[in-house]
Amino acid sequence: MPVLGIVLPQSLLQTTWFAILAAFVAINTAMYVTLAVAKILPKFYVRDWFHGRNRRAETRNIDPDAPF
Asked: How many domains would you assign to the chain?
């Protein structure tokens, strides 16, 4: 029977350190997936959603009748 890969015994897979290593790998993978998805999405600026007092009271355009 050909060996297709390394097969670990069940007693090794049920140890505490292996469970900690598996949890670390799972958390690390989730963080990298989150960072990759965040890098794909367009940039999000909070100031685009909330307009504060940063608007001018009057236009500074050459045409004074132009909209803001």
From this structure: 1
Which residue shows structure tokens 């997936």? 33
**CA–CA distances in Å: residue 40 to residues 33, 43, 44, 54, 68:** 11, 9, 12, 30, 33
Using CA atoms, how far residue 66 sits from 8, 23, 53, 56, in Å, is 74, 60, 21, 14
Q: Which helix (H) or strand (E) holds 24?
A: helix 16-40
Are the beta carbons of 66 and 59 closer than 8 angstroms? yes
The rounded average pLDDT for each run of 10 residues, N- to C-terminus, in the chain (68 residues) is 72 93 97 96 78 67 72
Q: Report whether 27 contacts 33 (CB < 8 A).
A: no
Which domain, by its residues, includes 45? 15-61
